[in-house]
Amino acid sequence: MAAFKGTERYIASRDLEVAVNAAVTLQRPLLIKGEPGTGKTVLAHEVAQALGLQLIEWHIKSTTKAQQGLYEYDAVSRLRDGQLGDPRVHDIANYIVRGKLWDAFESSEPVVVLIDEVDKADIEFPNDLLLELDRMQFFVYETRQTVEARHRPIVIITSNNEKELPDAFLRRCFFHYIRFPDRETMERIVHAHYPDIRKDLAREALNIFFQVRDIPGLKKKPSTAELLDWLKLLMVEDMPAEALRTSEKQLVIPPLHGALLKNEQDVHLFERLAFLARRGG
Amino acid sequence: MFAHFILALRQAGLNTSITEYLTLLGAMKAGVADFNVEDFYFLSRAALVKDERYLDRFDRVFGVCFKGIEADETLLSRDLPEEWLRKLAEKLLTPEEMAKIESLGGFEALMDRLRQLLAEQKERHQGGSKWIGTAGTSPFGAYGYNPEGVRIGQHESRHRRAVKVWDKREFRDLDDTVELGTRGMKLALRRLRRFARQGAATELDLPDTIKSTANNAGSLDLKMVPERHNAVKVLLVLDVGGSMDDHVKLSEELFSAARSEFKHLEHFYFHNCVYEKLWKRNRRRHEEAIPTWQVLRTYGPDYKLIFVGDAAMSPYEVTMPGGSVEHWNEESGAVWLERLTQHYRRAAWLNPTPQRSWGHVRSIHMIEELMAGRMYPLTVNGIDEMTRELSH
To answer: Which site among A28, A96, A175, A269 would you substitute to test the B interface, given the most B Cβ atoms closer than 10 Å to its Cβ?
Structure first.
């Protein structure tokens, strides 16, 4: 299978490439963690695209059960059908609803499965999927059939660290922590997304962006996703680079800062700092 | 092949297993790493570390185990900018001290000694030890010249030397044994919340009941789940004054952020050690002091008692009646501490000073003994251990 490299739109660091390739080669799940907005979920899309595979997304919520990824037995509708005398009721298979993993296992060609934000679910969730992800097969009790993966899918799991994941689960995964990109990487990322952005605008915007990130005490630091949104706005508004120019010491409230700071307290903090800087400067 | 590496990792506290080792070997065999040290580093990191908290420790162990695997000239030619050191010395040393240096063989000899120390220190640093100056053997210390000033790291960044990836130690912030930062606060909060929730009586699980009833083709099947409610009562007693203030603020914020999760959270202040009086408002400590006896009577033994303090004081403040620095205390701090810990069976002491320095302070040792060993550092790990200890 082709090795994964960063794509035109997705700048992958070398360590991420190695981790993805290891997971693909050994057919083990890859667990991705990192600050919000560093492209954990996007990675799955890019891997699927780079390898030319279909992507099956499974977004986890706090109520999601492991079983739902495999299949669900819709007993209530069977009960209803039974009361109405529907002939379908005699075959239990009619009430088995397939889950995302079943789809992935049954697929005629290899697929990429994204299990997004696995830590949102109950603490037992990863444990309940251990065997299924290890063997890539499961048993349907109602119909007494075993579903086996025709091709082992590439499983990418993201986590925001809200809950600790069980050791037994972690042992079976490769792990990668996406660090916040440094300036150089960030420039490449910006360029990958907006190849025709004016150089001076990008430079000044990045200056401000990293300045904002350096402010101590921000509740939510702006991340890559926010930067890209903000740049888009700046480009749409056709903002001159001069409007963003800052000096080393002086903080200026950047135009359209609502895209960078999503928290009211952060905006207040920033305005106060900018005010002090103006007075001091 | 890399067995010593795995063992070193396990010794450093990473619970790397055989499975993971085999995975790594499998990946090597499949050619993922491509005979390149950096790729091998990335690969082994992805295979062996499963938690970003351990990334820094992994980097350190990797550095030690695979030292010299790649001839790296930038590291071998690590010399000190002598001019810079000389200037520093001239600025800091008095003429008499300079003369003393001369008598010891002059500045050159001193530099040689330092260079020698530096060579040793490269190894020791990677082993997780301290920077150069803290070694008592350095002649620098003897002349009142702050050895911490000679930071090799600074020198490095000035000259922008190439450092190996794992030597950069970029994941240092993620190690959970460091003090609480903003991210640490969030994690600690989560731990405290978990601490606050205790399963107790059961309640009807409606969705499960419906499902089971349907599964039973309509005959009722009741399902119960344990009800979660907040039953934990906490008595927080904080040391105020002097160096403790920042930490006190931090821990107060921490606990009040978790406040909604506790059934009751009361806080009191003390200074250095607990005696017969505590107070609720630090500014009015003299007018509004509350007798400790009253606290003992008001809050029953079902409260969990958590002290926050550096426990650094003169031993007399713990052991002797009248030892307090602020007033005359009839009974010693030790008596009061014992009284409190006897009343509150679940008690713990959170200490914001780094755990490795505890051994050097006698009073910390004494308090730890009085607390029957239940002193924990104010780190995410420490809070975790504390909650575990207090919850049973």
So the answer is: A175
